Amino acid sequence: MEVYDETELLRENERLRAELARVEREAADKELQLERYAADLRETFKQERTRSQELRRSYMATVRALSNAVEARDAYTGKHAERVAAYGIEIARALGIPLSDAPEIEFGFLLHDIGKVAIPDAILYKPSCLTERERALMAQHPVIGAEIVRGIEFLGEAADVVRSHHERWDGGGYPDGLAGEQIPLAARVFAVADVLDALTSDRPYRPASSLRAARETITSEAGKQFDPRVVDAFNSIPDATFERIAAETR
Ligand SMILES: [Fe+2]
To answer: What is the mean pLDDT of residues 69-97?
Structure first.
């Protein structure tokens, strides 16, 4: 029977313990390093998020300034652009399309009529009927607007809303006579929001419709002026939502 040298065993035991302690220390160091690395990453992400939120806020301020410049000329529409943008976002949300997450879409809603800056006051506010020539010039506002926003990269798809907000589902709109899904979705959503606002706002020549009457008019235009799917989404939104937006943007 082999006899172990007890001292030898103790020494071996000691050596193994030391080795284990070293390995544990190394593992702890690595863990610490990883934690630091994760914390750095978290910090970077946080800064990045803050930066992009700041950027978005400054974009939004710029877009609002532009949209206010257009609205300032128009006495009776009040905060039309803001209201219609809020209606549009609700409809987009009800459609279940991530459109509402795309800030460019909201920019497009706010800037839809920016092309009107090029329309003379005498035409824009003419109390009587427009002549054929005046009407043709007025119908250019989506084209002019799209030209204005074209070179601004952060506006992205906003230009689609600006250009196509007067198109009709049945192809009878302007300026391009697009039909059905040829019309960018955001513009189809906007068209309903815009008409909702027009119908429920007072005009010099007629009083505002009730929300209920506006719903009936819009519903009767499903498949004609409007995308039926957008009309369905619009009708799924309770009155209270539109009433709240209207009260906030009076
Ligand atoms: Fe317009």
So the answer is: 83
Average of pLDDT values for 209-216? 96
CA distance 8 to 11: 5
Query: Please, are residues 223 and 177 in contact by the beta-carbon 8 Å criterion?
Result: no
Q: What separation in Å is there between the alpha carbon of 25 and the centre of ligand 1? A: 70
- Dihedral in degrees, nearest 10, Cα atoms 140, 224, 235, 97: -60
Cα(240) to ligand 1 centroid in Å equals: 26
Q: How many C-beta atoms surround the C-beta of residue 246 within 10 A?
A: 19
For residue 11, what are its two tokens?
């020494």
Q: Which residues surround ligand 1, an ion (CB under 5 A)?
A: 113
Q: How far is the CA of 238 from the centre of ligand 1 (A)?
A: 26
Q: How would residue 3 be classed by pLDDT, with cut points 50, 70 and 90? A: low
Question: Could you report the per-residue pLDDT of 118-141, keeping only the tens digit for each?
Answer: 898 889 888 888 999 999 999 999
| CA of residue 105 to ligand 1 center, whole Å | 16
For the record, the structure tokens of 184 come out as 């960018």
Q: pTM to 2 decimals?
A: 0.78
Q: Residue 161: how many CB atoms within 10 A of its CB? A: 33
Task: Note if 116 is an active site residue.
Answer: yes
Residue 138 neighbours by CB distance under 10 Å: 17
Which pLDDT does position 78 carry in this prediction? Answer: 60
Q: Which of the four pLDDT bands, split at 50, 70 and 90, describes residue 77?
A: low
SS3 96: coil
8 Å CB contact between 90 and 245: yes
Distance between CA atoms of residues 114 and 12, nearest Å: 84
